[in-house]
Amino acid sequence: MKKNRILIVAILAISMVFVGCTSSEEGEAFDIERDITVVARDAASGTRGAFHEIMEIIQKERSSEIDRLVVGALEFDGTDKVITAVEGDKYGIEVNSIW
Q1: Residue 51 φ/ψ, nearest 5 degrees
Q2: pTM of the full predicted structure?
C-alpha cells in the first residue's frame, strides 16, 4: 500500500512538472495572485473514493468521517465534464484523478 501511495504521488508530481512547462497560446499573463479553481468528481465517484482512501483525505473523527477536500470545489458527475472544466479555466486544477 505504501509503495502504491509513493508511486501515485510521484506520477502526480511528474504530471505537474509537464503541465507547468507547457506554453499558453493566450497573450494574457498568468496571475499568480489569483485563486485557483478546484475541480473534482462528485462524491459518488469510485475514482474519487479511491483517491480519498489512498491520500487519506477522508479522516475519521470519533463516530463520523470528515471530508478534507477543499471547501467550494466544483464537482462534476463525469470525468469528461471535469476535463472540460479544467481545460476551459486557466486557473483550474483537478484534484481527484487516478488515471
Answers
A1: -60, -45
A2: 0.55
Q: Do residues 75 and 41 make contact, with C-beta atoms less than 8 angstroms apart?
A: yes
* Pair 32, 90: CB distance under 8 Å: no
Report which residue type is found at 30: F
Q: Are 13 and 6 in contact (CB under 8 A)?
A: no
CATH of 35-99, one of 3.40.1030.10, 3.30.540.10, 3.40.190.10, 3.90.550.10: 3.40.190.10
pLDDT in tens, the chain (99 residues): 777 888 787 787 777 777 666 665 666 788 889 999 988 888 787 777 777 778 787 788 888 887 777 778 888 988 889 889 999 899 998 876 554
Helix (H, G, I), strand (E, B) or coil at 97: coil
